[in-house]
Specification:
5 helices, 3 strands, Helix Hairpins, mainly alpha
Length: 231
């Protein structure tokens, strides 16, 4: 096996390692709390908070309505109980009663509206709770799949890294250093030669470079500086 080919195969192993690391990074990003689940939780908490705020206001209105109803009833007793005979006093009591009835009607309307809002909020909470439950079940399934996949990728990565270490130890140290230097600067260190052209820069190689590459020697492209490999 010529040296250029060994460097090319080392590059294939490095590509597998990089691919595995990229996959692991993507998996790790997806692991943990889901933004969709977090938003659903926040929406549910907001609904519960709103419902909690409605309760005291509803009770306050209920007490107010109850007090107004009692006061209207007391005025009716005075108006129609026969104890008050003065026309002016009767007129004043009637005006007070009408004022209380107006306030009572307003508060009853407000109470009814608030009770409807409370009922709608309770329905929304039920729906949101069900949706959140479904999202959490789905999220849990995704996490289990991701954990399994992460374990598989980590296993492959360990194999690739072990293979790389063993394979790199069989390559001439000077050639290996050249490979690492080019790879750190350019990403890929070795490129194929096809139809007399460097596939890194698409430049047609001089005859002497092509012949040396064909022999399996470590030859760098005079244009892009990458190591040339001819199958």
């Amino acid at each position: 096996m010529n040296l250029a080919k060994r460097l090319y195969e080392l590059q294939l192993i490095d590509s597998d390692i990089q691919s595995s690391r990229s996959t692991l990074a993507e998996i790790n990003v997806k692991m943990g709390e889901s933004e969709t689940v977090l938003r659903a939780k926040a929406e549910l908490e907001a609904l519960k908070k709103h419902l909690a705020e409605i309760g005291p206001r509803r009770r306050e209105l209920e007490w107010g309505v109850d007090d107004l109803q009692k006061n209207v009833s007391k005025l009716n007793d005075k108006l129609y109980g026969g104890k008050v005979g003065n026309p002016k006093e009767l007129m004043s009591l009637e005006q007070d009663k009408e004022s209380l009835k107006t306030r009572l009607g307003q508060q009853e309307d407000e109470l009814l509206e608030l009770m409807n809002e409370e009922e709608e909020t309770q329905k929304k909470i039920k729906i949101q709770s069900e949706q959140l439950g479904n999202l959490e079940v789905e999220w849990q399934k995704e996490q289990e799949i991701l954990m399994q996949k992460r374990g598989e990728v980590e296993g492959h990565l360990l194999e690739f890294e072990k293979k790389r270490q063993e394979f790199a130890s069989t390559i001439d140290s000077q050639a290996h250093s050249l490979y690492e230097g080019i790879r750190s600067r350019k990403g890929h260190a070795v490129v194929k030669v096809e139809q007399g052209r460097c596939q890194g820069c698409r430049i047609t190689l001089p005859v002497n470079e092509w012949q040396r590459t064909k022999s399996g020697a470590v030859v760098q492209c005079g244009s892009c500086g990458k190591i040339l490999y001819l199958e």
